[in-house]
Q: What sequence folds into this?
């Protein structure tokens, strides 16, 4: 099978607009870890099921060890948090968490999903981590948006309902 050139693939994929999330979890020693991720996908409504694609690293190990993670959707002013959790620390104040039902939750997010892992599938250099959502909530404010490898503010203009 012919394979797309990786640089072209990256450029084309960057034209698919996403929000930005931070995955949070406790590792096997009870330490909080977080990782920026835009591979968050809702899979099914009943039961509420989501997936994220995670590369090997600290977050992958934490989720594998505990079987739980929280998806925190960043607000429009969350660029520095996104950088912080993508190993590009901003030098600013440490992010604030609440620990709720044994899961770290980032303060100030526009939505969060507490997730219990039900399955995982290794695909090339990532693992698809599929989970049922045990609780979630949201508030109505504007999101941080990732498009063309850059951060943007807001939900865009409404075209039609
Ligand atoms: C907007 C945005 C969206 C992103 N979305 C995603 C996403 O959906 N999924 C995702 O996985 N990343 C995503 N990233 C990248 C991710 O946030 C960073 O790579 C982050 O530093 C990973 O944190 P960590 O603590 O898990 O990794 P660390 O433990 O700090 O490791 C850093 C990197 O080293 C490599 N690495 C470490 N250990 C191993 C190992 N055992 N074998 C092979 N490689 C290894 C991996 O590439 C890993 O990501 C995104 C980044 C940005 C800016």
A:
């Amino acid at each position: 099978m012919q394979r797309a050139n990786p640089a072209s693939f990256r450029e084309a994929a960057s034209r698919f607009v996403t929000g930005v999330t931070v995955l949070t979890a406790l590792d096997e020693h009870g330490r909080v870890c977080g990782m920026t991720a835009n591979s968050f996908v809702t899979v099914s409504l009943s039961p509420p099921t989501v997936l994220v694609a995670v590369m090997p690293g600290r977050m992958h190990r934490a989720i594998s060890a505990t079987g739980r993670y929280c998806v925190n959707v960043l607000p429009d002013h969350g660029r520095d948090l996104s950088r912080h959790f993508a190993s590009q620390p901003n030098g600013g104040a440490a992010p604030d968490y609440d620990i709720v039902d044994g899961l770290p939750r980032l303060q100030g997010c526009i939505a969060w999903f507490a997730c219990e892992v039900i399955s995982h599938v290794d695909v090339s250099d990532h693992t698809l981590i599929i989970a049922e959502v045990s609780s979630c909530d949201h508030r109505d404010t504007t999101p941080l948006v990732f498009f063309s490898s850059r951060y943007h503010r807001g939900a865009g203009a409404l075209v039609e309902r």
